[in-house]
Amino acid sequence: MTDIDKTGNLLAQIPKGEGKGLPPVHLWNPDFCGDIDMRIARDGTWYYMGTPIGRKAMVKLFSTIIRRDDDKYVLVTPVEMVGIQVDDAPFVAVSLQADGTGESQVLRFVTNVEDEVVAGAEHPLRVELDAATEEPSPYLHVRSNLEALVHRNVFYQLVELAVTRELEGKAWLGVWSSGVFFPIAPQPD
């Protein structure tokens, strides 16, 4: 991955798959080659050497070889691994389609790199509250230990779909997807 030109073009070879699925980055354990000046901003914009990577195909390619090892994000090929900076989450959930209602509702999200994710037991939703501002930051599990920050407009859609359910003796607002209830916030008194 050290072979990236100034416009963010990947020069190293990544094995071509059969057009199905993602590269098996979890199986690749090459030597760590250091950190590179690549950053994913909170809004999902990818930067290389301080400049946004404008080629969507390049961003999509990089998004297939990202991995999180503990709290460190890396881009991995079979021959090298480099560290990158991620401001919040590597993906952003930018659209939502809700099918059905109640416990049989299914929530389908699309990320900024066009990954489609159905919320459920394998892809849970969670909401963190900022301790100082109490502003919610909702996340959707995408794959392995990688998440998407749910865009504010999409979060508003979730809130519109929210229903009340009692959890551990307290009323919560939340949404159903694939038979799983995901709490968003305690029901105001």
TrEMBL record:
- Top-level lineage group: Bacteria
Domain DUF1285 stretches: 23-89, 90-184
Species classification: Bacteria, Pseudomonadati, Pseudomonadota, Gammaproteobacteria, Pseudomonadales
Q: Name one Pfam family in it.
A: DUF1285_N
Q: What is this protein called?
A: DUF1285 domain-containing protein
